[in-house]
Amino acid sequence: xxxxxxxxxxxxxxxxxxxxxxxxxxxxxxxxxxxxxxxxxxxxxxxxxxxxxxxxxxxxxxxxxxxxxxxxxxxxxxxxxxxxxxxxxxxxxxxxxxxxxxxxxxxxxxxxxxxxxxxxxxxxxxxxxxxxxxxxxxxxxxxxxxxxxxxxxxxxxxxxxxxxxxxxxxxxxxxxxxx
Length: 179
Fold this sequence. Notes:
Elements: H1 7-35, H2 46-66, H3 71-104, H4 108-111, E1 115-120, E2 128-134, E3 137-145, E4 156-163, E5 166-171
């Protein structure tokens, strides 16, 4: 008995409360991360803490239902299983996701200064198309000439500026150095 309640009731209550807090955290994580800027250690992230309580309470509840072990052994079993599951989640799910988020996204400002190849000729007073090779893949963008000159297909250009999603490009001459 814990506080006058059976272990099944305690495990069930912890499971329900942890699951509800997980759902709330899913919807309000950005706001809550800004309000409660606690220790920045990844092992103390709310996702892992809530996962620990969910797994521990679920294992404890199932062990109480389906085994005849003493409750103190079930507590140790549930804590041990929860620690193993949380560590596996941390190293094989959350760490790879954290590093993947930073590497895939880009903004138009990130493209400025990049080299590209013209795939649709850029007329002096119109639009063409360029192809930009990035680590995360290849990006095609609408382009216009910075100097109002025609740029034929296959020419290498440099992105001078991005204006409303359109790349302003100039011919790239690797041998011309202006100081």
